[in-house]
Amino acid sequence: MGRSTTGKSFGGVLAGAAALVALAVPASAEDVDAQAINFRTPFDCGQVWNANTRADHNPQNAVDFQKSNAQGQNVLASASGEVTKVEDLGDDSYGKYLVIEHTDGWTTLYAHLSAFEASEGDSVSTGDLIGKVGSTGGSTGPHLHYEQIDGGTVQRVVLNGVKIKYYGDTEIKSSTGC
Ligand SMILES: [Zn+2]
Asked: The whole model's pTM is what?
């Protein structure tokens, strides 16, 4: 019995060491890239939003965040960076939209805003207020159109380390600023 317990304990230590090694060595360059920035849900702490993706969305990997009473809700920076674009396209496309440039060639884009709460050149931290949800541009109802872009290509969205479902609906509760 005593011998068996010792063996089990030793095995536990080995498994722990192996796990540490696995964490320290990235599986691939792609994994490193995806984990380079911890993008957060761009809404106030505790709010629940539906993240909708669909094949006919333009661009295809964009996410539309929907909820009741969406109009006028705060839109927060997904990660720290610099606001590099604040533009109003009127009744077309994105309408009022804003772009934040992060590190390693990543940007995030927030569209159909009803109001801007940041200006071009602003440095922002994760969770900073940057705008208000609206329905400007080619939008038929209040929602936030959101993109994560790497090197100019819109990527499938990852928030809080969790990949959004493609294609379909994912319920997300924001922990940003909690
Ligand atoms: Zn959209």
From this structure: 0.81
